[in-house]
Amino acid sequence: MMKRTRVVLLAALCAACLVAGALAADAAADSTDSPKVNEAVAGKSKGTDAAAPERENMGKMTSPSFQRKIRENAQKFEFQAEVNRLMDILIHSLYSHKDIFLRELISNASDALDKIRFLSLTDKSVLGEGSTAALEIRIWADKENRQLFIRDRGIGMTRDELVKNLGTIAKSGTSAFLEQMQKGGDINLIGQFGVGFYSVYLVADWVEVVTKAPGDKQYIWASGADGAFSVSEDNGENEDLGRGTLIKIHLKEGSEEYADEARLKSLVHQYSEFINFPIYLQSTKEKEVPVEEDEEAEPAKNETTEEADKTEDEDKKDEEDEGDVVDEDEEESTDEEKKPKTVKQNVTEWEHLNDNKAIWLRKPKDISDEEYNKFYKAVSKDYDDALTNIHFKAEGDVEFKALMFIPKRAPWDFYDNIQRPKPKANTPGASSPAGLKLYVRRVFISDDVDTLLPRYLSFLRGVVDSDSLPLNVNREMLQVHSSLKTIKKKLVRKTLDAIKKMADDEIKCKASDDSDSENSEKPSTEECERFGTFWKEFGKALKLGILEDDNNRGRLAKLLRFHSSKSPKNFTSLADYVSRVKPGQKTIYWIAGLSQDEVARSPFAEKLVAEGYEVLYLTDVLDEYVMQQLTEFEDFKFANIAKEDVELDESEDAKKAAKEAAKALKDTFKPLTSWWKEQLGSKVSGVKLSKRLASTPCVVVASKWGQSANMERIMRASAFSDPARAAMMRGQRTLEINPDHPLIIGLKDKVISDKDDEAAKATAALLYETALLESGFELDDAKDFSKRMYELIKEKIGVTADLPSSSSSTSDDEPAEAPASAAAANKDVGDDTDKSEL
């Protein structure tokens, strides 16, 4: 950072000097005009406008004539820079990972091979014969001497090209080659900025480039990135390349890892796995090698064992006389003797690293399921086959190819990482294999492509490959470009279409099963089960998409699945719910809770289920958040039946009759509702008659804009919940009572007869607290509730005695005796107690 700042300051200083010199020259010229100067001074002394001369000078400085005068009289300079320091800044500021150097060198080698291949289309002789004609890249290392070698059989470079391409920073040989080729050809070379080669100095302190172009001599370019380089003819110092380039890298101290076979193999797999040309790595492996027996010892062995052979022949003859009896141990020993002897040795061989082909370049109809599965396992490191694949080619404003896979199982840390910043692959913190990988012309660029795929679809595995994506100069990241939005939009649409197809297959299977007819178009068993597997693993991800992806919320809503009162065992879709609604129903009813059993027995759903309305059971933590975002589905509105003012979609006549009946009941229960509201105070906003209850005496409902009991529970469980904010968001609650329940009717009569009855007050408090619990809320005061419950239990079993006071309790040293009065009371329990009274 300091070095970059110094360069910028140096440039600014030069520019300032130029302007200052021009101003000084102009000032000197103006100073010769003495009358004007004297006049200005005189004017100032006489009390005239002192700022006028300054304004006049400013006007002169900004005039076109003044600017031309500066340009005509100014002395021109060129920016100066220390090349060795500039190289250091370039190398260490441009790239964020040292690993990049191998990708850049392999990409350059691939470009060189592409160039010779293009030329060979019109002149086959340029390829040469034998091994020279092989278009390949070979890598090997000398770990002891800290050296790395990369060789290609590409087009090579002449002496002048060495000087221009490697001796000039930001000079791209690929760009020059493209300019020379005919326009409109299908040529996709990687290099375009001319700085990729210099990334080698991230790990090297000295580099030699041995190269030979077709029909030219072999040359050596050498440099240590110290501001100088040398070019010389190769006078037999190296083997004759025939054609191509050999890069000798002398690794720095601390970069010895790049001479390790395993490390090199990992980097090639990460960055260059799908390069068009084969990449071979020289590796040493321990293998069992057969050992030839000493031929001179054979005659002696034969003489020594001649008698033994005769004995064996006699034994075999005896065995034949006795019958075909063969000893298994003898047979096994005979087989072992036939096996040649081996010894473990270190064998050096060339290992083909990029044998996985870029199958996304082919047409989907030409690729078998076996090839798809093999490719999926290679890119995802998964042992199972993929659930399905998404393979397409996009054309238009942005052209790219994509091959994506949906796994059968969610990565083990998928839901842990979905809300965190995603660590890059192969870096500390990257726990699972990267999802979607971005390639530009088969060269890996990045797997940190949040701009290409929303986080809720980050479970996808596969590749996106484009020939026209704009990259930054280091080719490590994408430039912000409108084409990225287009690519993201198409990737999301194609993914949702693939998920919808799995859902449609499931629907077809169910329809076929219900019709009990043989349908030739029925999907296979595997296709019928795919969406169920997907929903189990990635259902939460789609719900997260509802919250985040406004543009695709409608598409995602069609993929949601829930249990319901009419489908308690199997999942149902919103479309299925709509197909089963009652005549005139325009609302989708739902209730959220901890478990399906809890919501199925909820008092809020009693009357709706009894009258034939279907209620969705939402038991996932995200479900209620999802419903807050879904305002409607196919003209059906959503309603949480655990909140107030829930209206049933009844006929107008039924609504009118219910309204008249409610008015009469309201007047009847007015004494109870007013008295109960007075008893509860600020705990509730009101007490009113309920239209949703059947067998439950009362419930507590949240206000229309407040949090439900389930949402309050979720917010309390949050590690960073704010109690003050939670209290504000909670809103007011309403106590709804069932006018048909005997408890409510009895309490009404008791209140009408005596408003101050303590039993009525205790009963009302206990009913409210019980309703709180049954409605899913927490008690305001658990101690008071438990105390009332204990009193009720005492009355129920006829216990009238209280615990002895603390002052009358015995000491620890004296044995306690039961009070006679208590014993007598317990003995003569409750002949006069009304056990049925509450």
UniProtKB/TrEMBL annotation:
Signal peptide positions on this chain: 1-24
UniProt key word Cytoplasm: yes
Domain Histidine kinase/HSP90-like ATPase: 97-255
Acidic residues bias locations: 309-335
Subcellular location: Cytoplasm
Residues given in the record as ATP binding sites: 104, 108, 152, 157, 165, 171-173, 192-197, 245, 475
Major site of localization recorded for this protein: cytoplasm
Coiled-coil ranges from the UniProt annotation: 641-668
Ranges of biased composition (kind: Basic and acidic residues): 298-308, 828-838
GO terms of molecular function: ATP binding; ATP hydrolysis activity; ATP-dependent protein folding chaperone; unfolded protein binding
GO cellular component term of the entry, any: cytoplasm
Region (Disordered): 34-64, 286-347, 800-838
Keywords, ordered alphabetically: ATP-binding, Chaperone, Coiled coil, Cytoplasm, Nucleotide-binding, Signal, Stress response
NCBIfam families for this protein: PRK05218.1 (NF003555)
Sequence similarity: Belongs to the heat shock protein 90 family.
Record's protein name: Heat shock protein hsp90B
Species of origin: Ettlia sp. YC001
Designated gene of the protein: Hsp90B
